[in-house]
């Protein structure tokens, strides 16, 4: 699909209009003159009606497969429960729609494989919503690493600590709908950017645990207890011989940070170390032998995509970089190129996450396959 001056804008539909769509996708789309929001879909009619009024989008449906058949929709963004992603993404791809989908792409690598193959075989742009790749300090860290400034990468280290209430997560706490908890919801992001930075992960030793029963809703009503993890960790060996350690939890008391929590991703190379932190995404920590890690402002060219109209000085830094996800998706459509990160990237992260569950079950190291292109 080619978009040029004077031609129609990309017609985008949102499938799932909950908090993530309202927080990331719709504000990102609103900044982009190349596209327009033309349709909404959600299983909740009341929420759908409210979003239709808030966003000025009259065309709505509660049936995502119906929407995938609409000829006046060019692209869809899927932000529905995890167990619905595969069917919707495959239907959209077969109908010739470009697709961006929230993570995890599916409940297992098998589901994600079907999504990737459908999008690949039908020639549509496909993208996994790995938001944190777009943080300015993460972009800059990648540049430093790829340029050789840090030397040979030896260690990757990730912490994601959240202080969330111990009440029900709704559908997110049941395996049939979510697949897993913290591992699929949060740690999978960190698996993805570790692969992007350091290359393929060849084997893992992992574990998960559940501490909070989550058998009460926010308003105190009883519900079925959680079946998924609220803590996850893994040790990994990269193809290069480098090592990685990841830990994530939603139960780290005192790590609130205005809801953003604590995130620390570190690379130790033979020439230096670099650290990304979510709560200060426009600053990176850098250090070399004989000195301490010290804050350095991220250069202006890494604060946003070069052609994006977004002003990096406007809005909360830990929020506004998330809008760049939509800019990348629409740019890939306009420029007729693959989006980054793609469904292939989502599949590789899923293969590792699945291997963590297998490793914990077997109490053993597990080899992690690389997805075929």
Strand and helix layout:
Elements: E1 10-15, H1 19-30, E2 35-41, H2 45-55, E3 60-61, H3 64-68, E4 75-78, H4 85-94, E5 98-101, H5 109-121, E6 126-128, H6 136-147, E7 153-161, H7 175-178, H8 182-198, E8 201-209, E9 231-238, E10 243-249, E11 262-269, E12 273-277, E13 283-287, E14 294-297, H9 317-320, H10 324-335, H11 343-362, E15 366-367
Parallel strand pairs: 1-2, 1-4, 2-3, 4-5, 5-6, 7-10
Antiparallel strand pairs: 7-11, 8-9, 8-15, 9-10, 11-12, 12-13, 13-14
Helix pairs in contact: 1-10, 4-5, 5-11, 8-11
CATH superfamily caption of the largest domain:
Dihydrodipicolinate Reductase, domain 2
Question: Could you please say which CATH topology of the largest domain applies here?
Answer: Dihydrodipicolinate Reductase, domain 2
Major beta sheet, strand line-up: 14-13-12-11-7-10-9-8-15
Number of strands: 15
Report how far the terminal alpha carbons are from each other.
23 Å
Total domains: 2
Helix share, percent: 25-40%
- SS summary, helix count: 11
Content-based structural category: alpha/beta
**Rg to the nearest angstrom?**
20 Å
The fraction of residues in strands falls at 15-25%
């Amino acid at each position: 699909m080619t978009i040029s001056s004077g031609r129609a804008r990309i017609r985008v539909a949102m499938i799932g209009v909950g908090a993530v769509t309202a927080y990331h996708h719709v504000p990102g789309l609103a900044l982009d003159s190349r596209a327009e929001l033309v349709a909404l879909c959600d299983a909740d009619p009341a929420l759908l009606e409210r979003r239709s009024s808030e966003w000025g989008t009259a065309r709505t449906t509660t049936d995502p497969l119906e929407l995938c058949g609409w000829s006046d929709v060019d692209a869809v963004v899927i932000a529905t429960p995890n167990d619905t992603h595969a069917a919707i993404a495959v239907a959209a791809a077969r109908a010739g729609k470009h697709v961006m989908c929230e993570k995890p792409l599916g409940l297992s690598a098998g589901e994600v494989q079907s999504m990737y193959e459908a999008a690949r075989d039908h020639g549509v742009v496909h993208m996994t919503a790995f938001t944190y790749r777009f943080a300015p300090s993460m972009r800059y860290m990648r540049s430093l690493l790829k340029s050789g400034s840090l030397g040979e990468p030896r260690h990757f280290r990730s912490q994601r600590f959240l202080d969330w209430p111990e009440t029900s997560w709704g559908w997110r706490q049941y395996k049939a709908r979510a697949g897993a908890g913290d591992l699929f919801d949060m740690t999978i992001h960190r698996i993805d950017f570790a692969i992007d930075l350091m290359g393929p992960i060849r084997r893992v030793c992992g574990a998960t645990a559940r501490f909070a029963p989550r058998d009460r809703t926010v308003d105190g009503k009883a519900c079925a207890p959680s079946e998924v993890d609220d803590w996850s960790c893994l040790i990994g060996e990269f193809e290069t011989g480098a090592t990685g350690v990841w830990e994530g939890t939603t139960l780290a008391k005192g790590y609130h940070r205005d809801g953003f929590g604590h995130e620390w991703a570190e690379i130790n190379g033979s020439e230096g170390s670099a650290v990304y932190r979510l709560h200060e995404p426009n600053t990176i920590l850098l250090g070399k032998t004989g000195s301490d890690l010290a804050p350095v402002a991220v250069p202006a060219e890494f604060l946003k995509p070069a052609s994006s109209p977004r002003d990096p000085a406007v809005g909360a830094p830990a929020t506004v970089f998330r809008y760049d996800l939509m800019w990348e998706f629409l740019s890939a459509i306009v420029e007729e190129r693959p989006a980054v990160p793609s469904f292939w990237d989502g599949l590789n992260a899923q293969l590792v996450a699945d291997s963590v569950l297998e490793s914990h079950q077997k109490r053993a190291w597990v080899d992690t396959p690389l997805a075929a292109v």
